[in-house]
Design goal:
This protein has helices at about 1-25, 30-40, 45-50, 55-70, 70-75, 80-100, 100-125, 130-140, 145-150, 160-180, 185-200. It is about 70% helix and about 0% strand. By secondary structure, it is mostly helical.
């Protein structure tokens, strides 16, 4: 048991060292040797845990999103309504965004760099990192909430996978844009309007004389029955 715990601690130390090296040197210039030196382990030890830099990248992305969505995982066990659970998803996400410290900010930047790296490599079919698989794992955290909401008839009968994808990618996009506009935005208003638009849509309650032509999910109006 102690050995397993020590191995996990060493894995975390390697990842923390990799984060530091990539923050200082960039993901392209940071080397396995530099990470090993920072972690105070042999280069061979790194390869006992990760076969390549790509595996380190993949683990770093997973760890970042897992920490960001830590509160999401607990929602399925809470004795609250489906709507309250979705509201808490927004609250957890915005609270994480608004309270991000310098260390987490550097982690966010590196994760974005890794994702861009994966996109470039994916186009040339030269990476084994399956970013889509990592993200799908995260989407599944909230799928039971959506499914229960549909069964309880408090949510419209919509595809839970698309719902999870749209919710997650919307919050992800807000986080990216928030960084560049953080000094000019009111945090409470941003959270309030994001939840308002997501739950109730953008159309006024009064039906216009000529309805706009909308199809698919964009025409569903409110998500709530």
């Amino acid at each position: 048991m102690a050995s397993k715990k020590n191995n996990e601690n060493k894995r975390k130390r390697i990842l923390a060292s990799a984060m530091k090296i990539f923050a200082e040197q960039g993901i392209n210039n940071g080397t396995i040797a530099s990470i090993a030196k920072e972690a105070d382990v042999g280069k061979g030890t790194i390869y006992e845990y990760f076969r390549s830099k790509d595996e380190i990248f993949e683990e770093m992305i997973s760890d970042f999103f897992e920490s960001m969505m830590g509160g999401w995982k607990q929602l399925n066990n809470l004795e609250i309504s489906t709507i309250q659970k979705i509201e808490k998803i927004f609250e957890y996400s915005f609270d994480f965004l608004f309270t991000i410290d310098e260390q987490n900010f550097h982690q966010l930047i590196i994760v974005v760099e890794i994702m861009l790296y994966v996109m470039r490599k994916d186009m040339s079919k030269s990476t084994q990192i399956d970013l889509g698989k990592i993200l799908q794992k995260l989407y599944k955290i909230i799928e039971p909430i959506i499914e229960n909401g549909i069964k309880e008839k408090v949510l419209k009968d919509i595809d839970k996978e698309y719902f999870a994808f749209i919710l997650f990618s919307s919050l992800d996009g807000i986080a990216l844009h928030y960084y560049f506009q953080r000094n000019s935005l009111d945090n409470d208003k941003l959270k309030k309007y994001s939840m308002e638009l997501f739950f109730n849509g953008i159309l006024a309650e009064k039906t216009p004389s000529k309805k706009p032509k909308v199809t698919g999910y964009w025409g569903m109006g409110s998500l709530i029955n």
